Structures
1.
Amino acid sequence: MIGDRLKMLRKEKGLTMKEIGEIIGVSDAAWTKYEKNRAEPSIESLIKIADYFQVSLDFLLGRTNIREPQFVEEANIQSEFLKEFEWSKIGDPSQMYFLVENLSTSIRKYNEHKVTELELQLLLKTISDVVLYFNTLAELKEKYKSITKEVLTEHRKTLSQIIEDLNNILEEAYKDILDGKK
């Protein structure tokens, strides 16, 4: 498997086995063995290869088809988060999967140019504000055992910000219409 990946990456860059061997610091004979799966690169060589081709080690080893190291890391973090949520045994975990799926859809819509970066950023800010609000309320609940002026003030402040963010998303989504362009 690794040999196929190495050969594919080398050919994508238009390099000979000798050229890539020099770049990585191995002989062309060693590289030939790697590509034919007769030998495996050392960990040090794997890291150099991954860095040179800007792919993740998991991609090189065939553990994922995601090339970009940051996306592999994000996927791993997301997977761990969802596992923790399931292990917590609170409520219906499908709600968390639903949220993650919808966030992924929003990012896909951005990548397909169906929403603007500003719209997506406003959405992410709004979600972040709601999560921070939830955590702040939990802290206030610990500090004050009943609803107090501080709790209500925090609620009004956060609610106002969330409504403003939602209005900004709406205005951004329909700005062409509001500007009289459509």
Note: The CA atoms of residues 108 and 114 lie 9 Å apart.
2.
Amino acid sequence: MKTVFAFDIGGTAVKFGLVAEDGRLLKQGEVPFERDLAFAALCEQLARLYEDTMAGSPADALAVAMPGFAAPDSGVVIDGGGNVPALRDGSITQALEQRLGLPAWFGNDGVAAALGEVRYGAGQRLNRFVLITIGTGVGGAVIIDGQPIIGRNGHPPELGAIVVGNDDAGEPLSLEARSSAPAMLQAYACQTDAAAVSVRQLFEQAEAGDAAAEAAIDATCRGIAQAAGALINALMLEAIVLGGGVSGAGEALTRRIRMLLPAYVWPSLAAKVDIRIAELGNTAGLLGVASLAFEGLAASTHARGAWQAAKS
């Protein structure tokens, strides 16, 4: 059985793991993302993670999920990806191919996470849904008839750019600016003299009766509900699937969004849509981008077989 070693590079952590063709995660780990790392240092870090994890037993290919839009022909991030600036300075997949001697594939992290859910998680039972990933940034993907909707050149949807209101200066406020993890913590800090806490602690404080924590979470959930409502109204979705680090709050998150959603959705559509947490959690991106590599390996094998048949 073929295996792919996958990386999922985010604004706060680099997740990695060895994925089997049937979707089993055979090995996995996570290290903090160092924002100040230069491109060459990031490449070396990823290569060493592979070498240390595999200990001389090579995978068949590599796969990298990353934020923003990477040029299809090079893998260099050319739009977005502000939380991982080093990816704009070179092709991470080309560098890893040269360093490790393995073929490498790449994809947008939100689209990869949605593919993971479609092929191995919550999306297996859904035809039309949107995955919204909420973490250091906000991303995700639109799935129609089991396939991600992307631009002709591979550009992923920019769900974090959906406008959900106005800021204090009257300027348009994006979903990412309102509902990402940093935005949630900043909203709390603006109401209190307390130091910023983790999102998990914020939910715990809200459950314990902290009004400022509850207000910060409510603002976040209202932004998600507003964006989700627009998508449901336009696309007649079966579900909104929530992923990313903030989705670790589970029912405490989905309960609030369910309560807010009817204000933004046509009633007959609201009655049919489900709000659920991604089944694969933080492994969705790894599994999804690995599936792209498996497809690439299969296509390469088919092409070699066709060439050999034509030659004989």
Note: The CA atoms of residues 11 and 84 lie 6 Å apart.
3.
Amino acid sequence: MAETLQDLGSDRTLLLVDDDETFLRRLAKAMEKRGFEVETADSVTTGKAIAMARPPAFAVCDLRLGDGNGLDVVEAIREKRPDSRIVVLTGYGAIATAVAAVKIGATDYLSKPADATDITNALLAGGDELPPPPENPMSADRVRWEHIQRVYELCDRNVSETARRLNMHRRTLQRILAKRSPR
């Protein structure tokens, strides 16, 4: 059974590292309401500086940040505080990055959009226990759409290059991109 924040003692420090300012603000408010003492950072540089100066008991780090990789922040936290519980968040879920995050010392790995409840459950899951599955997981159509959007952005919004990399017909890709995102 997952521990509660009260079971963990007096150290409730939480470092949130994400370059999406709106998401960071909303998550910080939600985590404060859950009893965490929140500190935020919007870059690898700031996150590492906070981790070195005041290593938190808990951390949530985005994988891709404007100035680098969130795993660098995870390593900095682990170096100063090996017992901290760290969740890595990303909008680009992949098995390889999940394995890398866990090897470096992350407690868990969640794909965006993850809400404050999912994140809290992951942070408070004790030992080898897995947190409960998310209440509203992304649909398979949504996961596919997110992947296509990611590749499209990585190809500088070039439809032909994206279609080639995804091994799909260009017109099929254009139809997918013209539609709204699935729920």
Note: The two ends are 31 Å apart (CA to CA).
